[in-house]
Amino acid sequence: MSAYEPSAVETQDVAEVGDVSPVETSAQVESCDVCIVGAGLAGINALFVASRYLSRDQKVILVDRRERVGGMWVDTYPYVRLHQPHPMFTAGNIKWTLGQKPSYLATKGEVLGHFEHCLNEIKRRVRVDEFFGWTLESHDETGGMVRITCRSAAGQVRVVEAKRLIKAVGLRVEPNEPLEFSSARVQSVSPDYCDMRGGDIGASDTPVWVVGGGKTGMDTAHALITEYPGREVNLVAGSGTMFASRDRFYPSGARRWWGGTRLNKVASEMSRRYDGTNETEVAKWFRAKYGTWLTPETGNFLLGVLSESENKTIAAGLNDVIMDHVVDAVDRNGATELVFRSGATKSIQPGSWVVNCTGYLVRRDQDHDYEPYVSRSGAVVSIQPRSATLHLTSFMGYFMTHLLFLDKIHDLPLYELDMQDLRAKSQTALPYAMFSLAQHNLSLISDSVPTKVFLDCGLDLERWYPLPRRLVGTTQFLLTHRREREHQRKTLDTVRERFDVRCGPLLDASR
Ligand SMILES: Cc1cc2nc3c(=O)[nH]c(=O)nc-3n(C[C@H](O)[C@H](O)[C@H](O)COP(=O)(O)OP(=O)(O)OC[C@H]3O[C@@H](n4cnc5c(N)ncnc54)[C@H](O)[C@@H]3O)c2cc1C
């Protein structure tokens, strides 16, 4: 555990720093014990953990270029619903105050409300100064301190000096723009700027083409079908998407005592089956036992969750499902046509709406540069997909911050995986490699942190189930995780060799 003295002088003006804009004359310098960049789910978990190690008079500076806490949820589409059980979408062990059943799908407003609640709860334990509207530009480590340079949209510069920096910048999810088309007769919109449940799209009765078969496509189709029964809604589903069936993982009511399958059980079975070469076979197994989908092909699995009833509603309400990728819409010979990657075309009604649901997670303009998950000095932790240590950024924010404060982050031979590169090389292998990674690293972590670290981890989806079932799971994990680690290590080594991706312990991987 670390305890430092707060800086005597916390704010001062100094001469101009670095390469600043012409409007800049001086940069404010602030000091703190920990600086966290990113106020999304990963950052708020890092903050929760930091607050457990710091005392009331120590200070955290929380930086985000958005204007409030919440990360990507701040500006994602308004009808988004949290597809996982909301109680486990939290910071550490902070409880929701919504008063809804665990199976309730939280809305965007409710998710943002919970972020606010988490921040307020954390502030009861440690001082948090919010630098919202500030973008991290650079950082460097000198003399045992990390110097962090941030800039506001107006060009002002602020410098933060911290003993530790946690960069929880996430997957760089940004609003999607409407697709650009040659046709002047289609109404191209993005869900992030056009709410399906009203406005011009609600007032019109022309057909809607939802482009993209992932989580956003499903939310959008569901919103349209339920809001406007009888309206023509079509889906262009790319290579198709598989979802984990909510009914199988999260049975509701009394069935939680005996029904469904614990996600952790499936994760360990999945990593037992996966050997780094057989992703197609494992995908088939997962799909048959736990998957749900509405497209005839199901190329992608991005850990999305969908219930059988949502799936049925969407399938019954769709007019046409096309397995292809839209490349343009054109007006020719008096008709309007969608043009697909395969070369095929489809005549559509002029005035049709085309909604860009092509996804947030795979845009090349959002690629991250490689950075190890922890710097050589151990003062900077970086949570992003190029050096992933666990399957989700929220878990990384939680566990990596514990390891940081326990001074163990350099001691464990954790594997890091370049998820961005692996996704580009094999979408099929990615989810199974991610679970092998998570099982391997959680096994190492569980051997080296106090039990309370796991007890306080409210992110654990195992909490869906009553305590006796969870205890069975914990006992199984404790009995088997060490001997399974060797298989997971071999699997990850095979993934590295086969796909030529960064995947291995930090020292091997980053030098
Ligand atoms: C449509 C959609 C629905 C989803 N639904 C679910 C769901 O139901 N359940 C689930 O578990 N996951 C869901 N996800 C995944 C979701 O991305 C994660 O759950 C989680 O919210 C990501 O948190 P994060 O902190 O890693 O990233 P983010 O939420 O993206 O937060 C990162 C923050 O870092 C800030 N930042 C980045 N770079 C800088 C910089 N240089 N300077 C300052 N600030 C910076 C960003 O502004 C951002 O606020 C969904 C994703 C999408 C796109």
Automatic annotation (TrEMBL):
Pfam families: Pyr_redox_2. Residues 33-238 form the FAD/NAD(P)-binding domain. This is FAD-dependent oxidoreductase. It comes from the Bacteria.
